[in-house]
Design a protein that fits this description.
The protein has 308 residues and is an alpha/beta fold. It has a single domain, classed as TIM Barrel. It is built from 10 helices and 8 strands. The chain has an 8-stranded parallel beta sheet with strand order 1-2-3-4-5-6-7-8. Helix 3 links the parallel strand 2 and strand 3. It is globular. The two termini are 31 Å apart. This is Amidohydrolase family protein. Pfam families: Amidohydro_2. InterPro entries: Amidohydro-rel, Metal_Hydrolase, Metallo-dep_Lactonases.
């Protein structure tokens, strides 16, 4: 059984979400169910999740700063989410910075990026590319994927606006991500959720490690340690600490970040359990490496000042 977590040092949570379903449009939480959601049923998420809820869940493990990742607000008005988050931060001092949304395949994406970048809190963009459900179904060149010329034209605008990119894609699409990172070396690319190592068989983990190692060849890439839940499998430190340690060994302690993915990962475990497993995983490392992993890397990548 996982033990109660110790109080961690000051840290940055590099990936979490807020939503107010009473006032704001989040179709996936209201009237457009997501097929094949990776944790199965997500009915428990269909409630408001605001800074006070985050404070309750984090308790003694509250981060010193945090990065809000776009939460699939209505795609018709992505800048409205950023405007709302700015108001939220003014009231609660949470979140610290924002990774906003823009449809990179939209012919007018440069205008959306300009509007997002005009907000002082915005650091980057996340737009989920088209991906396959399994490694066996993965194909190159799909419309809406990282190979799509129109999508890549939109990606090219990120450098102009000084924005990073958050990528959510499973490990079997990381060859595409490597090409993207190499073709746009001035744009930081941050892989979300540890590359989604859902297949924990020996072969599955070996292929995941190989894919991560290929992406890590690009120096403008970084990795968030998050999203380690498995469908219908209890979340335990014994399962996840080795995965965390492998990921850090591959990407290096200077390019990995702690991230909770709350409240989504509340479907599989507690905030304290995530913090505790991360602390256990990095305990063998030098103090300077631990500080980088807890927050120094996130502060550098997302430009967060005065957080510790």
């Amino acid at each position: 059984m996982d033990h109660a977590p110790p109080v961690p040092p000051p840290f940055i949570d590099a990936h979490h979400h807020f939503w107010d379903l009473d006032h704001n449009p989040h179709p996936w939480l209201q009237d457009e169910p997501v097929a094949h959601f990776r944790y199965g049923s997500y009915a428990a998420l269909k409630r408001n999740y605001l800074p006070e809820d985050f404070a309750r869940d984090t308790g003694a493990c509250a981060p010193a700063a945090s990065v809000h990742i776009e939460a699939e607000w209505s795609r018709a008005a992505p800048v409205d989410e950023t405007r709302w988050l700015t108001t939220l931060a003014q009231r609660y001092q949470r979140p610290s910075v924002v990774v906003a949304h823009a449809d990179l395949a939209d012919a007018e994406v440069s205008h959306v990026l300009a509007a997002q970048a005009a907000f002082a809190m915005v650091r980057g963009i996340r737009h989920k590319p088209v991906v396959s459900l399994t490694a066996q179904d993965a194909r190159r060149g799909e419309a809406g994927s990282m190979d799509d010329g129109r999508w890549r034209d939109g990606y090219a605008w990120l450098e102009k606006f000084g924005l990073s990119f958050d990528l959510q894609a499973p490990w079997w699409h990381l060859e595409q991500a490597l090409d993207l990172a190499r073709d746009f070396p001035a744009t930081p690319l941050v892989l979300n959720h540890t590359g989604l190592p859902s297949d924990r068989s020996a072969q599955g983990l070996a292929r995941w490690r190989q894919a991560l190692a290929r992406l890590a060849d690009a120096p403008n890439t970084a990795l968030k340690i998050s999203g380690l839940g498995q469908r219908d499998v209890p979340w335990t430190a014994s399962d996840n600490v080795p995965v965390i340690q492998d990921a850090i060994a591959i990407f290096g302690a200077d390019r990995c970040m702690f991230a909770s993915n709350f409240p989504v990962d509340s479907l599989v475990t507690s905030y304290g359990a995530i913090v505790s497993a991360f602390a256990q995983a990095i305990a063998p490392l030098a103090p300077a490496q631990q500080r980088a992993l807890w927050g120094g890397n996130a502060a550098r990548i997302y430009r967060i000042a005065n957080w510790a």
